[in-house]
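Protocol step 4 of 5: obtain the predicted structure for the target chain.
Materials: sequence only (see below). No template structures provided, no constraints applied. The aim of this step is simply to have a reference model before the mutagenesis design in step 5. Sequence pasted as it appears in the construct record:
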Amino acid sequence: MTQMDYARKGQPTPQMETVARKEGIPLEDLMKKVAQGVVAIPANINHQSLNPEGVGEGLRTKINVNLGISRDCLNYEIELEKASLAVKLGAEAIMDLSSFGSTREFRRKLVKMSPAMLGTVPMYDAIGFLQKDLGDITVDEFFKVVEAHAEDGIDFMTIHAGMNRKTAERFKKNSRLMNIVSRGGSLLFAWMELTGQENPFYEHYDRLLDLLHKYDVTISLGDACRPGCIADATDAVQIEELVTLGELTRAAWEKNVQVIVEGPGHMALNEIAANIKLQKKLCHGAPFYVLGPLVTDIAPGYDHITSAIGGAIAASAGADFLCYVTPAEHLRLPTLEDVQEGIMASRIAAHAADIAKGVPGAGERDKRMAKARQKLDWEAQFKEAIDPEKARAYRASSAHDGHTCTMCGKICAVQTINKALAGEKVTLE
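Step 4 output (structure tokens):
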């Protein structure tokens, strides 16, 4: 049975117990949310190393790290290093977007070593796995790839089931600056154009759900028509697909398959909150997963920042899951250093949003940091820092008197007030 099956039967699972303990909420409350579908616990029955996490209403905002093998960068060890780094730095999810080479061998290694929940986009893998031209792939072969990913232990899969013929026609009638920027969505659109057939994951959606249910794989309903630039945001094509995703969400829940819905990639600041509310309404409160959104198109090399700005706003408005973006976005496959920068930016955005939306306990660490700063207790500050190593390195990189930093030195406001309140002499020498 799936986590949703158990929740609807009122039977707690070890995964639910772990999530309730991590989030500091009553198990009964969590079970109700899983039963309703507003919280998902992606937990494939074959992912034995998983340390489960919950995604959804009232829980901490989670972050995802993308990695994987490509034809141009075929280095398995580096990608496994990225996965280890992601776990070390606190990412709750890793998506393997491999599209070339020994993808199954790499995927199985990830499943074996990763306590983070794992996601994939089977459509990326289809051409390399099957070693066929796109137009020659059959419906059964698409499902063969999905089942291979499920069998290997993948916890959630991005499936672009909303890119059906109706959505495709809407796209062709409504011009966009960036057309379709989703790799999976573009491949399915091209396959439909080449074959004249309906999207197999839409046409045979019940078959897909039965397969996912068998392994308790959460379906992450991909947004094939997400905006790839500010100008394309909140257009008719995006909304057309979103309506379909809402229908597919309800159909999945009817079969007790957990759902996450994916959202926009590029969007102006003033449109983000409304988009989150619209998605939650049309998709019945299902957990919402966003790529950024990036709030400007002109910052290549700094898109971890543009993404973090949008992600903080999105999560504070109700998004539940942030896909990290690195400084290498739009430019190249990220390095280990890029991965670290992207994770930290996303973690900051997620934490800031959790404070804003009042997630229980979210602000406690900030209070401890404030107390440590008030006491000029540097070790305590490093302990609370989101990146202790970087904070410690910055502190150690310049000369100081041991109490204050070199920004203020003797005229440190904290030190001055502490001495004044204690009745001590304040000297500036």
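Step 4 remarks: The chain has two domains: 3-356, 364-421. The longest strand covers residues 62-67.
Proceed to step 5.
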